[in-house]
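Supplementary Methods, section 5.1.

A reviewer requested that the exact input to the structure prediction be made available. We therefore reproduce it here, unchanged from the version used in the analyses.
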Amino acid sequence: MTVRRDRFDHYLVSQARAEVRDGAPVADIRQDDAGVEAVLASGEAVRARYLILADGANSRLARRVGLRRGRRVGITLEAEVPADEPLLATFGDVALFLFGLPVSGYAWVFPKSDHLSVGVGAFLRQSENLRALLEQEMARLGIPLAQARLYGHPLPVYLRHEPLHAGRVLLAGDAAGLVDPLLGEGIRHAVRSGERAAEAVLRGDVSGYTARIHREIGGDLLWGLQWARFFYAHPRVSFEWGVRNPLFLREFLRLFAGRTTYRAMALCAPFLVALGALCRRKPEAHHDRASEP
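The structure derived from this sequence is encoded token-by-token as follows.
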């Protein structure tokens, strides 16, 4: 079972040693040599030494300070589907990824405690009708969408190095465009970039923030971009020698856990393919020997 996003967010807020102002959107940002002023929609101005922006893929405030202009985004369409016991019995024990639909993304079914989180995302191309694809695939799986509300979300896929701070304003998470080009995943990089932004603020020196994010996160996401381009351009080969290869799947689990990188996986890919081929041959060789007189 996977974690619910609202509970995950609540946990993060509960651990924060900060004042939380819900329902207080920022309308404008002003900064000078001494600090930053966030002007709320109510007209109130809040001043601080630095400001970390984590306001999502469509960060208007990032553009307000001259950052994230001309960005490119993917898109996802998802829904929370109420699930009865038979539906949970069918899908409740596994996270289902359906590659090849759409061309540069996948559809998914993730089990929750009392519902299924389903969706479809396109990360490098957006020409397909995602709603039609999602409805078609969920109908094939027997997952009803009639009572579910569909939500669309932009995904700021990482495609290049660009400035991620301006003066005393720093970008983190989706606002910084740190979404994995292959899998569309961003929470892991959002948490890490938030930590790095906080460290820079605590040091009182944010001049090296952009370079550090590109070095620790962005460089490997560019390797992920090369994986994505190959994977989605050659889905059959990728599925046969990658998705069906338990060694590759193990490495992807290590990637999610932060124990390896896309670069390291690229360097060891020939060995993983070769070992995977040997593993697939062994049962056939055993059968041949058993059939000998």
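The mean pLDDT is 88. These observations are discussed further in the main text.
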